[in-house]
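2.7 Reproducibility. Because tokenized structures are sensitive to small changes in the input, we list the exact sequence used for DUF308 domain-containing protein, including any N-terminal residues retained from the expression construct. No trimming or masking was applied before prediction.
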Amino acid sequence: MTFATAYTKHFPDELIGAVRTALIITSIVGIVLGIVAIIWPGPTIVVVAILFAISLIIAGIFRIYQAFAASFLSTGVRALLGVVGVIVLLAGIIALFSPGDAVWLLAVFIGIGWIFQGVADLYGAVTKSGHSPTWFLILSGIISVIAGIVMIILPVFSLQVLAWVGGIMLVALSIATLLTLPKKVEAPAEPAV
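Resulting structure tokens (single pass, no recycling of outputs):
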């Protein structure tokens, strides 16, 4: 089944035109953004890092709010939430006003996340608690840990590679979306008088 068939079955005829228009616009934007990420990975990374810094600021403010508002939590947990909130907020502010720090911070967060994922996969392989074959968990775990370490050691290079891969994927997915647009619905013929 193609996407066009799925859309046609899920949208009334009156909405197909609007769905097509929205998909065309988002695909064109996706192609442009993907090309920008491929051609200029450095500025793309800085923009993503600044958005990451803004998200840290929001997350820090939310944690601080939780520390004061979550009266059902113990005082120790609330204090911990407050301290974590302040640290995350400060990291976000520093990263926002220093794009170089924002890029480094983004790389460290991604690297640590990959390392934790790799360790979790290896643990799943050792304890046989994973739902995937053991060999796959071991391979996935090793690759994730190595990728996390490389991300932390070579942050700018690693993020550029991610920008290139992300840009290529965005262009490919946007083109695929354009190729699978829902078919136009023909207006019913006017009855002859």
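The chain has one domain: 12-179.
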